Amino acid sequence: MNITIICVGKIKEKYLKDAICEYSKRLSRYCKLNIVEVPDEKTPDNASERDEIIIKNKEGDKILKKIKENMYVVALDLKGKALSSEEFATHMNNLSVKGNSNIAFVIGGSLGLSQDVLARANFKLCFSKMTFPHQLFRVMLLEQIYRGYRINSGEPYHK
Asked: Would you identify the family this protein belongs to, as annotated (predicted)?
């Protein structure tokens, strides 16, 4: 299976880079992983709602250019469906069984995802109603993908 994570912004913190590297290495035995970063747009402190929509749309256009036609797109969205780790593993397995071998997970910037990206998504996933920094969220997503593969393989890890 090919997993692509399309995300807005670069990771600057070494500890996050190290965690991403570790989970990427762990995942290499289960799938081909590709992490694609698109540049974030600067958001002024006093940005209006209109300004925020323009910024999300600019970031969204960059994201959409990275999505291939044959990709099953999972948008990470606060309004998406919340799944347990087991349900997430089952969802991933079902995608594979149905022939979806190219999955793209999309992590937006600090303002979230544009309506066009959400419209392109085949599935909207919510990890939590809490807000997390999008840089940290990349690590959390990689960990859950890894956990899902371990669950589906019947390997010890999930508790």
From this structure: Belongs to the RNA methyltransferase RlmH family.
